[in-house]
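Handout, section B. The chain below has 481 residues.
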Amino acid sequence: MLETDELTDQRNEKDYLLEFSDSVDLDQRRQYIDNFLDSLYKEALSSSLELNPALFTTVAQQTYVTSNCKYTPVQSSERKPHKCKTCQESFSELSLLQEHKKTHQTEKQFSCTTCNKKFTHSHQLELHKRIHSGEQPFLCSFCGKKFTFRSTLKCHERTHTGEKPYNCDICGINFSQPSILSTHKRTHASETEYKCKVCAKNFSSKSSLQSHAVTHTGVKRFQCDTCDKKFGILCNLKRHMRTHKGEKPFHCEICGKNFTQSNSLQEHKRRHTGEKPFLCNYCTKCFARKRDLIQHERTHTGEKPYSCGTCGKSFSQVTLLKTHERVHSGVKPFNCDLCGKSFTQQSNLRVHKISHLEKKQYHCDTCGKDFSQSSSLQQHKIRHNGRQPFQCDICGKKFNVRGNLQRHSRIHRGEKPFHCDICNKNFSQSNSLREHQRRHYREKPFSCDLCQQQFFVKSALTAHQKSCSNKHVILCLIVGN
């Protein structure tokens, strides 16, 4: 075992520090000390003797507090001043750095028999195996949710306790996760001279600003050879190419799922931890994805940056614009695989498919109509017997179903809870909203069997069929059919 006095005999650390002159600044002093500690470590390795990491912590402490040095003791401004030259990871103590360096030098001899991934230590392999086995030994005492790793459980439990142990040393705001703090700190770091003149967005480097500026020009010079899709930035094309090659290099160690892009992996991991690092500047809401925050904040600002090239109407979300554009194009990309009917929105298709899936086993003996629920049949039968037991206290109007009375009462109260996301108009009844939205999407689901004319609402079809059937009868008499 090396002794302290043997090391200091080789190079006296006090004399080493006294070599500084008045012109040497704080950073240079710190660099000298780091070099000194590195030299001690190398000399210890070359001696072929056992190295005691704690020894260097002692020497480091002596170096900073020596009473013989005429200069002010050097204090590190960073919590982790010792950096690994191989991977750039930083550590608070030199001994931790030396232990970390072994991971680069040591052969990864522990291999997973399921996926062949290799590890330096056996305990790392044992933790990894839980991904394949599905083992989740760590239970949340608040909600009962289970986790594969203790660290993931601790992150999750902070969503219950409200604990925020990670503090921003610039503005003093506290955060529950270190990753949220890192994301937040970028807002301080990005307050630089590199600002986009078009949208006023800040960037920490000139190259980042230049890459961003391309998005405003609309120029897309980089084209995919497989699908001809174009991109303004080369790195976006490279990321896109992974979808064709099937490459998914970014791996979630919690559930084993793979992703083509690193940001997709980061978003996915937040589902495990419950992190929502993106905070609304106008209210207390927070979001797991930045794009969700941007869309939400537009509800406060009223911003509608997406404009229809045909009619000039503006929208807050690009998805709403695309849906609206189908009004002009007539495109209905969502098809029912059971009956072939097409829809402009996937949500409308899902509602339509329910009509195929439901078994209508309750039969009305009066009119022959079938229903999927007994309660629906009972409500329907009231229409046949003419009873209207539910009366409005304000205007005296009567209804055969309580739900119809409740919907009617909204008219008197001025309630309009059903909102159109396209034009912001409000409605007192959900069916009124559906009928209204069909006009935006140019959907005409009600078709006349005689002349094939289509209508937005069923009442218009019923009125049409009366005149159309009369015309059909007259036509049949004329032609003799």
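Note. DSSP finds 18 helices and 28 strands in the chain. Compare this with the example in section A.
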